[in-house]
Amino acid sequence: MTTRSPRDGAALLSCGATVHRPFAVLQAFAALAVVLIVLLGAAPSHAQNNTTGAIYGRVQPGSAITVEHVGMVFSRSAVAAADGAYRIAALPPGAYRVTYTDPAGAARTREVEVTISAGTQADGGAVVRLDKFTVSGQSINPVDFSNTTSVSIYTDKLLEILPVGRSTTEVALLAPGTMEGDAAFGSLASIGGASVAENAYFINGFNVSSFFRGLSPSLIPFEFYSQFEVNTGAYSAEFGRSTGGVINATTKSGSNQLRFVANTVYWPDALRENRPDIYSTNAAGVAVPYSINTRRYLERYEVNASLSGPILKNKLFVYACINGAAARTGTSSRRAAGIIASGARIRSGR
Questions:
Q1: E strand or H helix at 319, and its extent?
Q2: How many CA atoms lie within 13 A of 317 on its CB side?
Q3: Of 114, 78, 128, residue with least CA distance to 99
Q4: Which helix (H) or strand (E) holds 77?
Q5: d(CA 88, CA 21)
């Protein structure tokens, strides 16, 4: 059966049992990226910048504090001041063992996680032990009270348990004061009411923003990210070129441990919400199909694999990541833009 527009005489929609065309492959590993990172030095030397963090706290005055990176096996040391305060800065993000040795020679050890551009508090007070109760806790999004920047930090471990999309924009939208921008500009994050083109994007300290339009920053496979720092206000002048917000990210790196990780992500069509069908009312008052959205089909696949480890133990590390993505789509109707008669009413549903 063919329905025609009374004025234009053109076919609006062809309906039949065999209209549904075969699913077309739109992307066959369209996003293929190979990233190789080489880190040199048994004890990396980092100036204080937007890719490092710090450990600070208060212990017994005169105590010796040693922090040791769990994966790369390098350490830093400090001695507590007269008031017991200490701070060890310029630490690459990651897990650290903190050892406190008081003047009497007694030592205690704990593990902490250092996050990007923030301080991690690690006090060395006395440990209280209970006979019948064990109390433990974990900070999901640590707050650095020594920092006045309005910032939210998300680690790869945290993002694994959060229901969040696999993109920089989806991570940025987790922060307060953000909202999704218009689809015409890539649906990027608007931070603090600013335009989506007024944000700045950094990866490992490098500005990867699009300086020409301010949109579509250079990105890498999502599995390659280690931590995200979303600055929404009062951030330092080191970022610059931004009147909105700053999305600052670091990448994963190799360590002394040989690791191979592979995973796949699947977005089935059955779990995707469809927009309602759209119909128009022609001059004769008959509702005719305009866009049959409920018959559209879309499913996506993504495959990731990474290999990391030492080339020279404690000196040379390697991290490689590969990402492949594909999508299948199909539809049983085509949108007839420009065919609806002038003055016709368009509505959704029946």
A1: strand 316-330
A2: 23
A3: 78
A4: strand 75-79
A5: 63
CB of 276 within 8 A of CB of 349?
yes
Distances (CA, A) of 240 to 119, 167, 198, 283: 22, 23, 11, 58
Q: 300, 330 in Cβ contact below 8 A?
A: no
Structure tokens at 17: 């049992």
Specify the pLDDT at position 226: 93
pTM above 0.85? Answer: no
3-32 pLDDT, tens digit per residue, is: 333 333 333 232 333 333 333 333 333 333
Task: Tell me the CA end-to-end span of the chain in Å, nearest whole number.
Answer: 19
- Locate 5 and state its tokens: 């527009």
Distance CA 98, CA 67 (A): 4
Tokens 């920053």 locate to: 217
Q: For residues 281 and 298, what is the distance between their CA atoms, to the nearest angstrom?
A: 29
Q: Please give the structure tokens belonging to residue 188.
A: 């990027």
Q: How far apart are CA 118 and CA 147, in angstroms?
A: 7
Q: Enumerate the β-bridge partners of residue 207.
A: 202
Report the 3 state secondary structure along 200-220: EEEECCEECCCCCCCCCCCCC
Q: What is the pLDDT of residues 45-100, one digit of tens each?
A: 445 567 889 999 999 999 999 999 988 878 999 999 999 999 999 898 889 999 99
SS3 content of the chain, % helix, strand, coil (to 5): 5, 45, 50
Residue 235 · residue 184 · CB < 8 Å:
no
